[in-house]
Specification:
One of its GO terms (biological process) is protein secretion. There is one protein chain. The protein contains nine helices and four strands; from the N terminus they run αβαβαβαβααααα. It is of the alpha/beta class. The protein has two domains: about 80 residues, Glutaredoxin; about 100 residues, Endoplasmic reticulum resident protein 29, C-terminal domain (Endoplasmic reticulum protein erp29). A four-stranded mixed β-sheet has the order 1-3-2-4. Strand 2, helix 3 and strand 3 form a beta-alpha-beta unit. Helix 5 runs antiparallel to helix 6, helix 6 packs antiparallel against helix 7 and helix 8 runs antiparallel to helix 9. The radius of gyration is 22 Å and the shape is elongated. The termini are far apart.
Length: about 230
Amino acid sequence: MIKWICTLYFSVTLFDLVLSKGHVSLDTHNFDKILSKFHTTLVKFDIAYPYGAKHEAFLEVAESSKHQPDFLVAEVGVKDYGERDNEDLAKRYSDSLNKTLFILIIFFSSIGIWIGAVGCLQDFDRLAKDFIRSASQERKTLLKSAEDLWDEIKTNSARKSAEFYVKTMRKLVEISGEGSESEFLTREKARLKGLLNQKVSAQKKDELKSRMNILDSFALYVKSSGGRDEL
C-alpha cells in the first residue's frame, strides 16, 4: 500500500513537471524570494487551471526561455473559491479579479535581456546578426567563431541548434549576389515547412520548428540590412 502511494505521488509530481515545462509555479510564500534571484521575470497571474490560446502562447514563451539563465518565466495560479489561494498576491497588481483572470507582468532588475524563439541560442543569434551585417571576408572569421563555440556546447539539443547555425552560415558564405541570401533563407524555410506537413514524429517536428526559428534569426537582419524579401 505504501509503495503504491509513493508511486502515485511520484507519477503526479512528474506529470506536474511536464505540464510546467519551461516555467515555475509561484505562490504567496515564495514569490518575492524567487523573483529576487533573477534579473528579469515574466509572471502570469491566471486561474488555477488555465487553458486556451493565451495560455498556449505563454507556454511557447516559457519554452523559449530555457537557454536564458537570467530570465525566469513563472505562473501564479489564483483560486476564487475554497481558501482562495494566491488571491492576495494577485490583488497587489490588479484591482479587479474575475473568472477570466489573465495578467502578464514583467519585472526588471536590469535591461538587455535576450528572449529567443524555441531552438535559438543567444550567442549564436548575436553571431547571426553580426554575420549578416558583415562583409564577406569578415564572415569567414565569424563562421570560425561559430564553429569554435559549437565545439564547446555539451547538451544534445543545444548542439543540434548550433550545428544548424553553422551550416546556415557555411551556405551563406558559399552564395553571393544581391538578394541571394534572402532567396536562400526563404527557399530553405519553405522546404522545412514542406517536411513539417509530412508524417514525421513529434521530436522531428520540434527539430524542424527550431530550424525554422533559426532561419528567422538570420532573415531578420537580412531585412534590416536592406533586403526586400521577407520570410
